[in-house]
Design goal:
Blueprint: H1 2-14, H2 23-34, H3 41-47, H4 54-65, H5 71-87, H6 91-102, H7 110-126, H8 130-147, H9 150-166, H10 170-182, H11 189-205, H12 209-226, H13 229-245, H14 249-265, H15 269-285, H16 289-305, H17 308-328
Length: 329
């Protein structure tokens, strides 16, 4: 009896339970893809929203792969999983999912190539390597123009604007946000929200604080409609940054603590790095050195945990593999 109980306990504790999307959601998505939306990466990406960790997303990728009817969809599935895994800051794991695809990228459709370089750009950007991200986004835009995919192209233009903003070329960033708005008249509320948020960020960096604060506060009303917690976290952080620049430290602290609480609830590791560093600076400016030290210590711990530098190196190494494959071809 004891042996049976021990085996039962071992089974219970060793079995991993995953929060997969429901069978009906998966079947509905596959039916839509079979009806002709073969190129719609968003249909597949949306399935991963029900996953709550990198392990779940990885396991779901393998399960979904068995049900997809074409190699194109299998490639998009790998890109979708990498995108979701990278979103949680697990960049090295995300790149592992792309490595198998990279060996055959030269043979993929222009649409798949465009989405592939778009996700490489995202991983580079999230790994604090915006110049490499710009190169990937520009490749993505070239392929997506050829593929005549305006919705995907809109995303790539928006991301390119973000990368230029990261290297303080904000006028250029605003140009690409305008390109993103003009590429299609089928802009979703969520996409428009992100374009406006990014514009507000560039306006902040150009010193147009009154305009940018109005834009961010307007964005919060859109966020209630879209229930986009990532955008909400980011907006709190951006508003806090403005108030830091204006030396309104109490208001900055309030937005930072709201954003940090939400980032903890939704496991947004990269945002925690940002909030902790800014909170450390705010508390240092206020003379609260013990709090400043605690947040700086937390910042260093989380940053080391997500292996930011290693991910940046891995992206560059993967691109070398791609180029070598193209040269051989």
């Amino acid at each position: 009896m004891k042996t049976i109980l021990a085996l039962l306990l071992l089974f219970l504790f060793s079995t991993q339970l995953y929060a997969y999307p429901g069978k009906s959601s998966i079947q509905s998505t596959i039916e839509q893809l079979n009806r002709g939306n073969q190129k719609d990466l968003k249909l597949i990406t949306d399935l991963y929203l029900d996953c709550t960790s990198s392990d779940e997303a990885l396991a779901f990728m393998h399960e979904l792969e068995k049900q997809l009817p074409s190699s194109t969809l299998t490639s998009l599935n790998r890109i979708a999983s990498a995108s979701r895994i990278s979103f949680w800051g697990d960049h090295s794991l995300a790149l592992k999912q792309l490595k198998q695809l990279s060996a055959s990228i030269h043979a993929q459709s222009k649409y798949v190539k465009g989405e592939y370089y778009n996700i490489l750009g995202k991983i580079s950007y999230r790994s604090e390597n915006p110049r490499t991200a710009i190169q990937h986004y520009e490749k993505s835009i070239t392929y997506l123009k050829q593929a005549a995919e305006p919705v995907a192209l809109q995303s790539a233009y928006t991301n390119l604007g973000l990368a230029y903003g990261a290297i303080d070329q904000h006028e250029k960033a605003l140009t690409y946000y305008n390109e993103a708005e003009n590429v299609t008249d089928q802009t979703s509320a969520k996409t428009q929200l992100y374009i406006e948020l990014n514009k507000a960020l560039s306006l902040t960096n150009l010193g147009k604080h009154a305009e940018s604060k109005r834009a961010f506060m307007n964005a919060l009303s859109y966020i209630k409609e879209t229930k986009d917690y990532f955008a909400e976290v980011r907006t709190y952080g951006n508003l806090a940054d403005i108030y830091v620049l204006e030396d309104s430290l109490e208001k900055a602290e309030d937005f930072l603590l709201k954003g940090r609480k939400l980032a903890v609830e939704h496991r947004f590791k990269l945002d925690l790095i940002r909030f902790d560093l800014t909170l450390a600076k705010v508390y240092k400016s206020k003379g609260e050195f013990e709090k400043a030290f605690l947040y700086l210590e937390s910042h260093d711990s989380i940053r080391n945990n997500v292996h930011i530098e290693k991910a940046a190196e891995d992206v560059m190494q993967l691109e070398k593999i791609n180029q070598a494959a193209i040269d051989r071809l």
